[in-house]
Amino acid sequence: MTHHDRGLRIVRLGLFANAGLALAKGVAGILGHSYALVADAAESAADIGGSIVVWSGLRVASQSPDYDHPYGHGKAEPLAAAGVGLLLCVAALGIMVKSVAATVSPHGAPAAFTLGVLVLVIAVKVTLARTVLRAADDAGSRALAADAWHHRADVITSGAAFVGISAALIGGPGWAWCDGAAGAVASIIVFLNGMHILRPALHELMDGAPDIQVLERVFVAARSVSGVRLIEHLKARKLGTHFLVDLHAQADPAMSLDEAHLLSGRIKTAIREAVPAVQDVLVHMEPFYQVPGEPVTTP
User: What is the model's pTM?
Assistant: First the structure.
């Protein structure tokens, strides 16, 4: 099973789990008079939309290159992640509005059974978050990582609701405002999680440079090839779960065109062996003329 297939299966599982949890929290929140739990149910409903966005992004990103998209459809991954980040931010604002209203408006204390519902929700969401995050790390998928953070955000909102309901129950009628206040605190955390997802997704969509460690591994692999005298103008960008690399390689100016072509092929092979996530390498060959007193390699 490929990383994409595994990711799609996990996202589908999360989609059904979110639907069930949203329904359970919504019903329990209404019957148990808990504003925090109703707000948490709204966040889970946003999770459903997020899972659909991630699932769609993974499906599109897995498609092969075609005439209209010669580089493939990998941009669907960060696009889906950005969509999830925006959904979280919007959900956070909605939760904040409802929670503030619940804090300032008098209402009865929530029912004790709502705490049991939250314990179940937290257990399920912690398991989902860990499973999805492992899949995201294995595949290098921004979209799956966003889905994992979405599950973590639900753990946070459910945990905040648990604290708020517990305080309202222990403190008595005068502490009923804690239920709404917990929802307000959770909304802030959810909003920050949304921004945490959105920023790197936008960076990738703008063809931002990958982590310096990736560039260093590419440079070392290219420079280690016999016949390469200098590597410069090294650039890389992320395309879904893969990288595209451009570089200039300098070699002996007396080398024939055929030899230079073969050397560029060895450079590509070395890079892709050192960094398997590299999908393609564009090597521009140049003659090497050393200037007296200058080093042969670049840092």
Answer: 0.69
